[in-house]
Amino acid sequence: MAVLSPDEFFRGPPEVHVGAPGRVNLLGEHTDYNDGFMLPVATPQRTDVMAARSDDGSFHLYSATLDEAVDFAPHDSTPHGFGRYMEGCIRLLQARGVDVPPLRMYVRSDLALGTGLSSSAALEVATLRAIRALLQTELDGVTLAQIAQQAEIRYAGVNCGIMDQMASSLADEEHMLFLDARTLDHRVLPLPAGAELIVINSGVPRQLAESKYNERRGECEAASKLLGVQALRDVRDVADVESLPSPLKERARHVVSENLRVLEACEADASRFGQLMNLSHYSLRDDYAVSIGALDELTQALRTDPDVYGARLTGAGFGGACVALCRAGAAQAAGERVVHAMRAAGGAAAGATLLIPAPTE
After folding, report:
1. Integer Cα distance of 42 and 44 in angstroms
2. Catalytic residue among 164, 180, 296, 305
């Protein structure tokens, strides 16, 4: 069966058409649910959601990307898949007093699933933006991100932090977004001068809800309790975690050192920023134990390229993609060299590259 077009699904034009980007996190991995600091940027790729009021009293959701449809009555629930994220957004808006009528919603995305570029947050944010536009509801960017986060936690079963949704709601492609997960303070910062980004898919898909993500969060909470702090963000000296038993010591060491790396990176030049990215990957590999062989091989291959300042996994780990900071104008060629060399050597099945070019003056 052919993928439905928007005109076929709506039997005419939709009432609204909005979108939201994915995100690439440059530094600050697994810090958001520890009340820490992060530096994401938005991707050029995005998820679009079109919406219109339903004419039959039921919700109808369709993903052109997956060629999957979900239908449910106003008081029923969607059983599985992408619909859980969208239903979560609808139910949480209703809980806030927004009268969300039955809707038809059409989704399409050029964000690759399972790469760690936050396709789920883009879907949530785009869904909320579509409902906001359709119903003319007052909903600022931070509140929207908070609702999106709760949709993922309560309806998709991923006990995530706030970074992905904040980045999808507030970030752009030309700047880093510095985020403080505790206060939700945020500010836009320039990328390091003379640098641009390349993202390479490792070829190993990531399933976050089925990974050890929730386990890592529990370990951080246990470490915080033993240290007598509200969250690991409150530990400012890495030496303070050395009294913890393993693996809590290693998990806490990553979070504390990662927060320090983010704070330093805000004013770092491209060379030092790349070094901090390398250190972040080693910490994620050795202390947080969320890297895999394909990600280690890919980041190491990137580091050996003369036009790469530094590289690390991006996203929660357990598969997905790597990001590298490269000399401006050289990122695409560097990425192609690395992918070609890895494939020629029979290494990890590195996939498509995503270029985020240096900002134009």
Report:
1. 7
2. 164
